[in-house]
User: Fold CDP-diacylglycerol pyrophosphatase from Paraburkholderia rhizosphaerae.
Amino acid sequence: MFNFLRKTLVFSLAVVVGGCASLAASNPNALWQIVHEQCVPPEQSTGKPGVCTDVNLAKRYAILKDIQGSTQFLLIPTDRVTGIESPQILEPDAPDYWVDAWHSRHYVSVRAKVQLPDDQLGLEINSKFRRSQQQLHIHIDCVQPDIIGALAPYRDEPLGMWRPATLQGHRYRVMRVANLSAQNNPFRVVARDRPGTDEMAEQTIFVTGAGATTKDGWLIVNSALNIEDGSGTAEPLLDHQCVIAKHG
Assistant:
């Protein structure tokens, strides 16, 4: 009976992950509870990640398959971190969440059953006002086909310079970087001219490969709720159905 109840709880927690948009009304701490209660303890005791796909205790993150879509995964800190507005993510010793999320993109290709090039894979985090969960999480998934084409011209832009872009009717800015760590950490890149908790709370960030391989660098794509025609969520730039894998 105990095992049945435990399996039922695990299933319920896994289901509640499905579609971040539906979580807020039910339990805004669901992701934290899943990682903290159903992933970290089994990793600590047995070396297995429980309901998560992976748990890296040393680097302080877990990877969880989202029930929405066939290829979407989430990187979730094993520390309590509320979201993009948290000062913790800008501390000198903060984990490289973007680097770790990018290294986890292979899970998407495995689910898609095809090796996807880097410019067809993306990472995304929502603003404080367009998320449903009070635990930082980075979405990892395929990129919308039209967005791949729209961002292609930016692959040859000089490093470290913002360029304007209009994507799906919203105003964004795009910067090409050589890596995703240290001063090129997307959180730090955006925070340089959007400082402070209140300003960062408005931001959304999307990251994808500038080209097919990492030698081309990465594109950091940023918008915000508090700019004209801006957006607090870049998640629509991702394709949770991964059409690109089905149609080449």
About this structure: Confidence is low (pLDDT under 50) at residues 1-25. The chain has one domain: 2-247.
